Sequence to fold (151 residues):
Amino acid sequence: MSPANTLTDWQRLEDLATAAFGRVGKSMTEQRRAVLLAMWSTKSVMTLETMSASLDVYHTASRSSVARALVDFTDVGIFRRIETRSGYILAPTRTAILLVCRSCPSVVIVEMTALDTEFASLASSYEFRVKLAAVEIVGTCADCTRQISIG
Ligand SMILES: [Zn+2]
Fold:
């Protein structure tokens, strides 16, 4: 389970993102910072729609520039695209299992460093070197399961 977001986490994330963009000759613009802050503030999958709506609250950003920012963050490894939800999350930095709810935007990230060796050994049998492993498991989260059994 991820700990509560703190200011320190934000500064670390902002530094990571600034460095990641720096490595590809790009910089952390005000708009990218706003997109990163919106992503950091949520624990859910952000789609282009929810990200645009959340940015509209305090400043205007065109849909196409928000879409570009989401792709830029994904390209430098700060966001991860969740195909089954057509959205994005903050990318895990360690081996992780992603529990993706199909009924709500919740994604639980469970870090599983115990699986590092398993994944590396599996991949090496295909002569493949693992940089980062993340497995998506799609299903129903605890809250949604409770609602189904009540309703
Ligand atoms: Zn759910």
Summary: The radius of gyration is 17 Å. The pocket of zinc ion is lined by residues 101, 103-104, 106, 141, 143-144 (CB under 6 Å).
